[in-house]
Specification:
The complex is a heterotetramer of chains A (339), B (345), C (346) and D (507).
Chain B lengths: L1 H6 L9 H26 L8 H24 L7 H19 L3 H25 L4 H20 L4 E2 L5 H6 L3 E2 L2 E2 H19 L1 H11 L1 H6 L4 H27 L1 E2 L8 H10 L11 H20 L7 H38 L1
Antiparallel strand pairs in B: 1-4, 2-3
Chain C lengths: L1 H17 L5 H5 L8 E5 L6 H17 L2 E5 L6 H13 L4 E4 L8 H9 L3 E5 L10 E4 L3 H16 L5 E7 L5 H16 L6 E8 L4 H14 L3 E6 L4 H10 L9 E4 L3 H9 L5 E3 L2 H16 L12 E2 L7 E2 L1 E3 L2 E5 L4 E3 L10
Parallel strand pairs in C: 1-2, 1-3, 3-4, 4-5, 5-14, 6-7, 6-8, 8-9
Antiparallel strand pairs in C: 10-15, 11-12, 13-14
Helix pairs in contact in C: 3-11, 6-7, 8-9
Chain D lengths: L11 E12 L2 E12 L3 E5 L6 H9 L6 E6 L2 E2 L5 H6 L2 E4 L11 H5 L6 E2 L2 E2 L1 H14 L15 H14 L4 E5 L7 H16 L3 E5 L3 H7 L2 E6 L2 E7 L5 H9 L17 E10 L3 E9 L3 E6 L5 H9 L6 E6 L2 E2 L5 H6 L2 E4 L3 H5 L6 H6 L3 H4 L7 H15 L15 H13 L5 E5 L7 H16 L3 E5 L3 H7 L2 E6 L2 E7 L5 H8 L8
Parallel strand pairs in D: 3-10, 3-11, 6-9, 9-10, 15-20, 15-21, 18-19, 19-20
Antiparallel strand pairs in D: 1-2, 1-4, 4-5, 7-8, 11-12, 13-14, 13-16, 16-17, 21-22
Helix pairs in contact in D: 14-15
Classes of the chains: A mainly alpha (339), B mainly alpha (345), C alpha/beta (346), D alpha/beta (507).
Main location (chain A): membrane
Keywords (chain A): Cell inner membrane, Cell membrane, Membrane, Transmembrane, Transmembrane helix, Transport
GO molecular function (chain A): transmembrane transporter activity
Amino acid sequence: MKNIFTKIIQPQRRFRPFTWDVIIMILLVILLVFGSILNPVFLTAFNFSLMLPNIGEILLIAMPMTLLIIAGEIDLSVASIVGLSGVTFGLLYERGLNIWLAAFLGVIVGVLCGAVNGILVARVGLGSLAVTIATLALFRGFATAAMGNKSVTDFPESWTNFGYSTIGKTFLPQTYPLIIFFIILFGILTHLSIFGRRTFAIGQSVEAARFAAISVLNHKIILFILTGAMSGVAGVIYVLRISTAQYDNAMGLELSVIATALLGGVSIFGGVGTIWGVAAAAVLFGSLEALFNLQAVSPNIFTITTGTLLIGSVMIPLLLGRINRFRIDRIRENEKNAK
Amino acid sequence: MIQKIAAFQTTNFKINAKTLLRRRESGILMVLVLVSVATTLINPRFISGYGLSDLLLNTSMVGCLAVGLTPVVIARHIDLSIASATGFSAFLTAHIIVGHGWGVVPAFFVGACVGAIIGAVNGVLVAGLRLPSLVVTLGALYIIRGIDYQFANNKQFTAEKLPTDLMHLSQDKIYGVPYLFCLVLLLALFGVWWMRFTRFGRDLYAIGSNPPAADIVGIKVFSRTFFAFVWCGTLAGIAGVMYLSIYAIVDSAAFLNQELIVVTAVVIGGVNIFGGLGTIVGALLGAVLLRVLIGALVALGVAQFWQQAINGLLLLIAIGIDRILSRRSETKIERIRDERKMEIS
Amino acid sequence: MKISAKISVAVLAIATLVAIPLSSGASAAPKYKAGLKIAMISKIGNIPYFDFAMSGATKACKEIKCTVKYFGPNEGTAAAQIKLINAVVQQGYNGIMISANDKDALVPALKNAMKRGVAVTSWDSDVANAGRNIFVNQASYDGVATAMLDSVVSILGAGKKGDVGILSSTPDATNQNAWIASMAKQIKANAKYSGINVVATVYGNDDPEKSTTETQGLLQSNPTIKVIVAPTSVGIISAAQYVVAHEELKGKVIVTGLGLPTSMAKYIKDGTAQAALWNVPDIGYMSVYAVADIASKLVKTPVKAGSSFAGGTLGSRKAFIGDNGPEIILGPGIIFTPENVDSFKF
Amino acid sequence: MAQASKATTSRALFEILGAYKHFGGAIALNHADFTLRAGEIHALLGENGAGKSTLLKVLAGVHTLDGGTITLDGKPFIQGSPRMAMSQGVTVIYQEPSLFPDLTLAENVFIGRQLRNKTGINWSEMRAQAKALFDELGVDLDPSRIARGLSIADQQVVEIAKALSLDAQIILMDEPTAALTKSEVNRLMLVMRRLQEKGKSVVFVSHRLDEVFAVCDQITVMRDGSTVAQSKVSDSTINDVIKWMVGRELKDLYPKMESKIGDVALEVNGLSSASEFANISLKVRHGEIVALAGLVGSGRSEVARAIFGIDSYDSGSVKLNGKILPGGKPGISVASGLALVPEDRRQQGLFMQASVSRNIATEMLDKLAKFGLVSQRSENSLTQEWGKKLQIKYPNPKAPVDQLSGGNQQKTVLAKWFATNPDVLIVDEPTRGIDVQTKAEFHRQLSQAAASGKAILMISSELPEVLGMADRIYVMHEGRLVKELSRKDATQELIMTAATGQGRGES
């Protein structure tokens, strides 16, 4: 299972093919320009103030998911963790616990779920795909068992405002300082920190990472815990945004998160990816959906577009690679002829 | 790891492949019997009367899909679009046969064709362009469902409009075995022959077992993988028609989000998610076990809200057992090679 | 009430005859704002129920010369509806009529819409009071519950005892939970229903597969069940189909609940099931009038008890303050019988 | 210098004349000649990097020659495709065969050509035929077991059976005995004789001269890509062969420097790991280069891995500068001043997708980082510093290390560890598969490091390298240290004898 991206060989020093994360950013710019021409409302602060909260949770979870996929693992249970930590938050609050403490404990539940995944994958040695399919059902099951057919809704207004309203008269939702903080944090963590360097290393070669004295298993557990923790944060924010804690909060969100990460240029085989590409992909997703809704295009077309982009995210780099290889061959031939 | 162990393994230590596989399947069978008997003891209606045929009818769809998915997983791929294909085929088939007033046989033919086309597209992308199947079929999941929604709009077909022959098909049975389950058994039988008694099927095992080596020995990786996807799609299409027959109602959300259930059934049935290992029979048994467990939980009156948690736990146990089994054989090998070491020095 | 409705129908009919070039709505309530744009947001975009409601809405819109557009999210979640609400608000719609997937989750988005001058009515499935101007209720919760209980009594026979199982949709569905709660309340309070013994409530999540499995489990664990009550148009089909598919159950278990006449006709005629429902096109029709009344400021917000809403051919309705703020009620439901079921085209 | 022998009378199958092949700048085959006759077992000998593997791969269809001719049975040999090679009757048995682990042995033998009857695959017939093949080879293997968990020796047998079932005339064996135990080697030799009896020709590559002399008929010796000798086994002695193989002044290739030997830096006491090695005790002093010699598979790399902490061990201790290292914790080993240049640079030493600078900085992140953040600039300057010191040739620091030549890749690994300024450096096969010039440079670096007071433990299969570089030599055989030699006492013969286990009396 070696990365298809490694097949894009680069013999010439000046030869630098576009990477997918750059393409996605260009696509985003094109969309913004095109959208604003198409619909005057699209590129307005108000539209963004409405669109941004919708992708908040996806952004939050896609960040650690990027690291996790770069390290060669995957977590399908994130949406269930969102549900479970939201339910925890709601139920504890309903029982009269201080709301700050309840929110904190909601996040802690996320951490614990992540730890369970991490230990099962790294310590017990089970495949992350199979494990997280199982915990997807398990965590959602816990949420269902705990919440049953109720829901908790009477959160204080200042808190639900946090989930939905904007900061003063700006277009930025109140959650976004936090979300942007996390994006920058994960950007730094991924691309500038020792931790990020090691994550890439593990994704590129687990064996070489072990010989480089990186504690691979612990690192993976930490990544799963990070994913769980961020899912926990997203769980609380989700509850506040829709002012409802229910067992089925964010059902099916895992595929959106993974689709966002893959669309952002993260290789499913690990070792390749950028936070910025993923963040751009999330905004692209959100803006595209908003534009479709504004144009009253059926949401079905958006669903189809999502799938097409996803396949494009693996197909286009492949085609680019083929083109690059063709160009390289021509350059080589020219060199040969010159001799 | 295995390589290293292998270096010390002797010839006189034999793992009989057949007995090993048989053990895996007989294990599932044992659990199956155990769960069924225990549940029947507590609630006699679980198996007796129409309980058993209900159970088999319930299994038909997931069983059919598990039989379809198995060759793909054995070839070290996955098809996440399987549930979308099923749903789309169900709706499209209903649309076409209602429009033409067709009956049972054309229905299955149409469904199989719809599925085969979807499988062929997946197959070209995965086998032809060698794109990662997880990403491709995740994309296909969205695309097919989107087309389904767009095409179906708000339409719904119910028993009123659907051909009565088709509705009756799900109610008819031979010796208590529903026709639909017989169909699944036939498909599985063909699958067993294909995967066990043709070079084509064996090549899929080889591809999943050691992909680079498959290239080296000159296996036709493209055509084999491609047809595995076509098979998977075709069976998804057939399962879609079964859906019509069993539930007598179809809209664009039919079989929504059920892909992981199928994967779960296949994994419980002992098909290795990393390819090369597993059988059609095992996958079918896995599907039956999954449905029996769900049915047992319901029949035992386990609180509604705990069912999903228990399902998750059971899947964890299933993959855990696989792991323990493989570990046990490793330690056995280690012990033997230690004995041998002493003999040498 | 009935009389007044009849009178207004009569008045309307006369008005239509008199003012041929004018729409009837205009004469009944002459000052609807020109160019009203109304968005009808459904719970989910793939079931025919909402299509039928939309047909009523379209009809009403023709009468008052407004436009109505249908928005159906492709997943039945509040999150998906929020996105549609936001888009609709920005597209300059004057009115939103919404069947909510969640009671509270939509409130912030709807509040935001109202703040920007959009009239909001909830219909079919209510949201919290803060999120809408008025709720157009198909029938009171108690009324629906009573209809279903009456149906059960008619199956069991008056005064007879019998076990009953309930097959609901999702565990957190607002309407279903309210109906089930009301049934429990009435069984306790009303001697007429004292023979009804609800042994279990299961949830089929409005998914045919799960509904079938749950029906099967319900009957396996409670073989004494004589009636299955399914207050959901998806679940009732699954339950009926399950009974039809099993000779052993025929006549022993009867299904009742809420269902569309077009999809239930087969089961109603062969005696497998009874079903009741409100007139689905009418609720779309009524909701358009309600939202247009508010958007055209013919009814002042916040709506007070006693405010009158025009209802086109259905006649006007007076608002009252229910448990969850102002609402109007469409009227009693329709019980479908083998005789009448074919006359309903929804 | 070449000794031609035309005594053999059987017809020639392979005739290779003036074979030339280069990879980038490195010349792998430099006008090599080779003749294989029907029914002979032909040893192809030479040091690592002499070109024998390349020649073998050309015959196997993996590589195509840049110059020279190959004829097979008088007809031109079609190069460049493993399948074509197979159809021309040539098969290869690699050191570690790649079977299909989940398939049965019978199926592995007949993969892609499974036997069929009317209803499909005829399993019983296939098993029977596989059994017959195994019997023919004199090996007791159950054809219905799966290949996973099979010993390498048995895997080779399966490959040989496959070759037989294909009716291959020529079987190439690339160091098949390297990973085998003595009894397994004996069995393989029996198999080879059976093949010979059946009229097959075998090309046998091995470093173990005793094996060569026990089983082979003909010898071809290669050095630096050329053929230096062709001889009948009966006409030559082990000493002749060693002379042909080495045949070069050692001085320039092994620039050993004087260094002051100091205190013990690394001390290993009674290290044992159940299945790998037992009771290993050794010492390496500051300023000293100690070689750990032995055959491939004798457990040398496993010892290195255990010392470094990649693998855990069962008993014994590792002391670094007098301090005991906890087992299984490579991070602590690195922090205490230990470094390991692993044997397989592509899999273990480098992140092939990552840039040169990322690779070099891997172990220095903690020191380069400010507040846990690493800047590209600091990585690049580190790269430039060490790139200069070790004369690594790379297009730019951001270039993926994949683009570098093997020698420069290996230097990158060395740079990565030198950058940590370790007290003790373990190098595992440091010069495998790199060209002679870089090799010399590499040796100079090791010498310099020792001269500056570092302790170096060098694992090498190349005897000249061991003799040329080491101050002291430990020899391992089947997981045990069997001999310790000082620089002045050591000879190739002594090391070979110990490494092949002949010094301890026949078992």
